[in-house]
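Q: What does the predicted 3D structure of MFS transporter look like?
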Amino acid sequence: MQAVDELRATPRAWWIWGLGASFYFAAVFHRMALGVAGLRAEERLHFDHEVLASFTALQFAIYLAMQIPAGLAADRIGPRRTLAAGLLAIATGELVFAVAQSVPPAIAGRALIGFGDAIILINVLRLTQSWFPSRMGSLLAALTGVVGALGQLLGTIPLQAALDGPGWTATFATSSIVTLLLAALALIAIRDRPPGVPAPRRHDHAPIAATLKAAWARPGTRHGFWAHLALMAPFQVVSALWGAPFLIEGQQFDDHTAAAYLLICSAGFAVAGPLLGLIADRGLRAQNRTLLAMNALVVALWAAILGWPAGDAVPRALLVAGFALTGAGAAGGMVAFALGRRENPPEAGGAAVAIVNCGGFSAGIVALLIAGLLLGGDGTPSADRFRVALAPMALLSAIAFVRCIQLSRQRERIAAADATKAAARTAAANAPAPAA
């Protein structure tokens, strides 16, 4: 059997990754569409900010609930069939959302999108684990995130233009058809593992509860969870829903300027992803320092934005920096997946990635709902109300930052102790035999 670290980044491996990344591109576009279309949805379906928050929170809650099943499916069923099922669910949900004229079918459509979206990233990363050497884990996770950021770019100004032109139904129905074609492509072209690598046997997998317990017990998995929470939760809250209303209703931006700021957020993700992946692949210490630095910048910038004096408009330069660094921080959040996979065996890779992915989405759901409750009610929310409503997002990221500092130190101590033991064993093995 060919070991993962003996694999080479062959053209076919890159082809498989490219297909998988294109699926993630589509999933992120569908996931983030309400970031631009949210206020239009309120007008079309006649509901308020609190219901809008419930839309996105429900989608993310289903995404979160599906993480562990999706990770286990990646390990036990394989990415090919699982990816096809996820894309089919997204295509169906988007078509329902495209033709919805009332809240219940629209909610059903977004729920299906959340169900399918939950499956995609974990299975794409499972493909990289099967087709590439483990030393490329951070880079491939970051590159996958960059492709997802490009999908989000499509969901900013281009989506705004499509909604202004062809309109709601035509735009979302077309995206549904494209996603259905991608589901067929997954079945036709994706292969779960390279030629010559046998499929895992059923008895190779530990019981589900034991697999999850063992994965969580490893410090790298817990570190990945908290790093993902720290860096992805702000990105989810800002880009998926509240960024545009914050700018339009709180900062008096027009629709197209707000979409441009979301574009900056996605661009920050795309630009930072490869660089952060390359740095993080240099070793444990580089991973830790990279993630902590990004987390500190994100928390500091949002503290400055939300703490700006009441009654004064937040300077545009500060907003640009905040949105750009939020995107760049999310690229660092993709590196968190490599933390989880690093300390887990290949047959538990999907489960470990699923646990890590729960971090950002669990915090994102909480922050989304709290913001919706604080912004709900009569009248257009003011800048001050938005600052209060978004404060839990920054607080959760700050709490996770403290936890990441603790786990970084713990993992570096463990690595140093392991290196000392390995050096001692090497010295003992090379010591000359005593004279007779």
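A (community wiki): The structure tokens above were generated from the sequence. Confidence is low (pLDDT under 50) at residues 1-5. Residues 95 and 173 are 5 Å apart (CA to CA).
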